[in-house]
Amino acid sequence: MDFYIGLLQVIGVHTLLGLSAWCVLHTGQVSLAQGGFFAIGAYVAGMLTAMVGWPLAWALPTAALFAGCIAIAIGFPALRVKGLMLVVATTAFAEIVRLVFFNLKWQVQTPNGMVGPDGGLGFGGIRYFPANAWSGLEILSLIWSVVAAVMLFLWLLDRSRIGTLWRAVGEDEVAAQSAGINLTAAKVSAFGIGGAIAGMAGGIFSHNTTHIEHGNFTILLATFAIAYPIIGGLKSL
Question: Which residues contact 202 (CB under 8 A, 6 or more apart)?
């Protein structure tokens, strides 16, 4: 039973990652930056609970907000290019993030010893769930509750004015711009929301695994993120 619970936990985290990529794909853009936002959320949330002592209820939204802000910040310059060049630019960003965490060494003394990122050895000791006696089923319930909340949010967003703008931009940028739609605002908003969702997924991932390292956030992860909504259907939300 523990195996299936663990499998469903992994599926839930990757569902969130796929939903984050859906936002960007909905505007007709292909971005491989989701792995970078996922890593940012994982490390930020882990630092807040393991090093600062924040509760998870504060750490996850903060990590999501931080990743979303980074997404908006890099979205403005990155979205000036299209197609293959955007793929290259976002791949470079994801790799820079991964290498930053590979070289990051910052540990603090806690009652359980030194805790924090330790360069290539990774970031261990993210033991919020074990320390608070969370069972596998409770963790699973949390993950899928977040998935359900994000899916409901995106479902409502898709049927709002913002969703209409995203679809218009994704279907024909020239026609959308001719209709007075601000292409930059539409694309950057999708980038920011997608980055926040990826950051939330990363925060859950780091607490579920209790140990993360740069090898968890390779280009393969970003490729999976794009594949999930494409295989599932971009218009099936």
Answer: 37, 38, 39, 40, 41, 42, 43, 45, 63, 67
Residue 204's Cα: distance from chain center in Å?
10
CA separation (Å) from 33 to 6, 76, 89, 114, 224? 26, 13, 9, 31, 12
pLDDT-derived band at 237, boundaries 50, 70, 90: low
Give the DSSP H/E element, type plus range, for residue 113: strand 113-115
Instruction: Name the percent of the chain lying above pLDDT 70.
Output: 98
Per-residue pLDDT at 34: 94
Instruction: Enter the tokens of residue 4.
Output: 């299936």
| Opening angle at CA 9, ends 8 and 12, nearest 5 | 85
**Cα–Cα distance for residue pair 220/84, rounded to 1 Å:** 17
**DSSP assignment of 87-99:** HHHHHHHHHHHHH
Contact 51, 110 (CB under 8 A): yes
Q: What type of residue is 10?
A: V
**Please, what is the Cα angle at 225 between 89 and 44, to 5 degrees?**
75
Q: Are 18 and 228 in contact (CB under 8 A)?
A: yes
Token pair 């910052």 is found at: 106
Reading the block at residue 178, the tokens are: 């001719």
**Cα atoms in the Cβ-side hemisphere of radius 13 Å centred on 65:** 5
CA nearest 38: which of 90, 86, 98? 98
